[in-house]
Here is the input.
Amino acid sequence: MKMKIEQQIIRMAVENGATLAGLADVRALKASPSHVIYSQMGDYTGVGTVKDGGGLPVHQLFNWPDSAKFALVIGLAHPKDRPELDWWDGKGTPGNRMLIDIMARTRKRIEADLNIGTQPLHYYVEKGGVFLKDAAVLAGLGCIGRNNLLVTPSCGPRLRLRALFLEAEIDPTGPVSFDPCKDCRVDCRRVCPEKAMNQKAPVFESFGKDTDLPARDGAYDRQICNIRMEKDVAAGRKNTAGEPGPIKYCRRCEFICPVGK
Ligand code: B12
Ligand code: SF4
Ligand code: SF4
Here is the structure.
């Protein structure tokens, strides 16, 4: 029996090196939690957002082409015993370069073998990218855990994501029913060195009782988490005499999670 087109796409991604792959409907993505609340969150310049050459924020938020109907989402395992995959070296991380390469090869095959048009996507949402965690949940890769990360059955939160637009009407592969946080000790919040997940972040508090996002109860505060990221950048600078060393961004809320170990 001929394999369904969705299965063929996923198989191509896995054959090219993806640990996990799935398909999300762009219409669902446009209505997903991050899209709904992002524009209400105020100016987050400097907290993981990108700027143009003149230091100004770039705004290409959600200016996706109408021809983009679905998103292929891939994940690459970043296990604890391969920490170097996540180290920033000034040009990116080895893991992200692998993801870019896996996606480029998968894209070629989708276009050549399946005759489906594709559109590459930037990593940053401000440069036309998608919210990768939302896309991954909608594609059935896992759920958003109490650590505010995508948690998958096989790798827990220890994986990195990338997406590609597909110009085809196909079927989504998610979301799936999966909730490892329900009966967990929630150590992911306890180990945070900055206590970024101890209380509802002020910005979400102001949205009223209806908002229980992010991290399921609004407790993840990106401003506080980013303090840690800035400390990690400073540590990377002074680790090697004069030369900027790799930046080893905090991953404590990932490593402690028991899922997928
Ligand atoms: C900006 C950014 C940052 C900023 C701000 C983070 C933030 N969450 O706001 C800073 C620098 C602080 C940061 C920190 C980290 N980041 Co970061 N970051 C991003 C980036 C570029 C955009 C994220 C964003 O702005 N989201 C918007 C805000 C509003 O939403 P949110 O806080 O993520 O919460 C939303 C979701 O949880 C979602 N959601 C919640 N419940 C549900 C339920 C359903 C059904 C759905 C559909 C959605 C959904 O709605 C929430 C509402 O806003 C993404 C890449 C990308 N293009 O997506 C990577 C990304 C999210 N980061 C990633 C990682 C790993 C990290 C760090 C561990 C650092 C590191 N070592 O790399 C920490 C983790 C912090 C944490 N516990 O969440 C990974 C996550 C992988 C995973 N397994 O989930 C991503 C996807 C990048 C990648 N390479 O794959 N990050
Ligand atoms: S440590 Fe427990 S509560 Fe935290 S993300 Fe993992 S399963 Fe969920
Ligand atoms: S990445 Fe580090 S600082 Fe940020 S929430 Fe996780 S444990 Fe806390």
About this structure: The pocket of cobalamin (ligand 1) is lined by residues 32-34, 37-38, 47-48, 86, 123-125, 129, 131-134, 137-138, 144, 147-150, 157, 159-161, 175, 213-214, 220, 222, 225-226, 229, 249-251, 253-254 (CB under 6 Å). Residues 5-255 form one domain. The first helix runs from residue 5 to 15.
